[in-house]
Amino acid sequence: MLSTSKLVRASPRLLQASRSLATTANAAPAAENKTILELPKTVEASEEFSQVFQVPKRVAPTHDIPVCNLQMRGYLPQQLDFFADFARRAAFHMGMPCSGTVPLPTQTSRWTVIRSPFVHKKSQENFERKTHKRLLQIKDAHPDVVERWLRYLTMNAPAGIGMRATKIEFESLGKK
Q1: 149-161: burial string, b at 16+ Cβ within 10 Å, e else
Q2: Is residue 26 over pLDDT 70?
Q3: How far apart are the C-alpha atoms of 3 and 41, rounded to whole Å?
Q4: How far apart are CA 141 and CA 63, in angstroms?
Q5: Do residues 106 and 141 lie in contact, with contact meaning Cβ atoms separated by under 8 Å?
Q6: What's the pLDDT tens digit per position in 95-131?
Q7: Which InterPro entries does this chain map to (predicted)?
Q8: Pick the CATH number of 67-116+124-167 from 3.30.450.20, 3.30.70.600, 3.30.420.10, 2.40.30.10
Q9: What one-character DSSP code corresponds to residue 98?
Q10: Cα 163 from Cα 135, distance rounded (Å)
């Protein structure tokens, strides 16, 4: 356990704050110009964190024209769903209509390995890896906003999540 002398040497600002708090408590009318250390007020948890546990808000599409398909892959479905939720919230705050998370078929790969490096062929071990996939579709958004959204997701993607974006661009047919 730390002694008080080590604590004072480690944090002199804490000592100054406690001294100023003690002096203002003893002589409150005399020292009105000194800084008073105020503790943060407790906030009810349901008020502050209620938006985190709700379904992400959505912007309604106007013309229903797909602009980008984002396919995410990962080995952990909980992490994949969390990142899909993060991507949907980011799309909402950028003003882009985003579809709900569409679960794609899970790809299972299995292989067998011999346990021993020598002659024991009958002693084998089976392994399995499941790749989970999710799809998000962005509709009616400007290509620059979609590009910025994809860069933001790439910067904040956790380890173990792979993304493949298919951007759909429309051009007008001009006369030659």
Answers
A1: bbebbeeebeeeb
A2: no
A3: 30
A4: 10
A5: no
A6: 999 998 999 999 999 999 988 888 888 889 999 999 9
A7: Ribosomal_uS10, Ribosomal_uS10_dom, Ribosomal_uS10_dom_sf
A8: 3.30.70.600
A9: B
A10: 10
